[in-house]
Design brief:
The structure is a single chain. This protein is an alpha+beta fold. The chain has 2 domains: 125 residues, Alpha-Beta Plaits (2-Layer Sandwich), CATH 3.30.70; 61 residues, Alpha-Beta Complex (Molybdopterin biosynthesis moea protein, domain 2). Helices cover 30% and strands 23% of the residues. Strand 10 and strand 11 form a beta hairpin. It comes from Lithospermum erythrorhizon (Purple gromwell). Its main location: cytoplasm. One of its GO terms (biological process) is nuclear-transcribed mRNA catabolic process. This is Ribosome assembly factor mrt4.
Amino acid sequence: MPKSKRNKQVTLSKTKKKGREHKESIVSTIREAVEQYNSAYVFSFENMRNIKFKEFRDQLKASSRFFLGSNKVMQVALGRSVSDEIRTGLYNISKVLRGDSGLLLTNLPNEEVHRLFNEFEEYDFARTGTLATEKVELNEGPLDQFTHEMEPFLRKQGMPVRLNKGVVELISDYVVCEEGKPISPEASRILRLMGIKMATFRLHLLCRWSPEDFEVYQDGLENSDIETS
């Protein structure tokens, strides 16, 4: 049986002692976990929602472990080349860890992992800067969905409103957001008040490693240095 490379010493960036110890702890934790699970995946995410992700993670905690954080630290833990990888072929995983991505270590069958990720989708209110998925326009006239107490707040968001006999009234047509354009802070607040959700939290599998093979799932990865079986 080949000698494990998990305990090889690594050099992390120069930081304060506390920061260095924290990074070393993460590296050690990932390396120990790699020995406990059958396969490893890199996944990307869009419109991350921490609470929803925690629920998804807890759903799989009996069979899997997730890591999010510094990609560089995870790369160091896994190994960034053949010479420092902790298991054969695992350094290919670290090459895909870039941008908004995370690491999944699991004992679940490949088909089950794909099913869970493909079915995961959570809708939420859009944050500032998110691209609007549709145009939202309010027509001149009464806004029955808002109570009279909301009128000062709506005015602060730039809406041309007034109170007319205790009813919030729009004195001219107003575009909250345009499809394909970034949502402003004011528009984000108004859309939330209207109950309109434009953000979808999704997870996308990018690649999979196992002792037998390595697969890349997503087109467009810079995989010129990635070895596939």
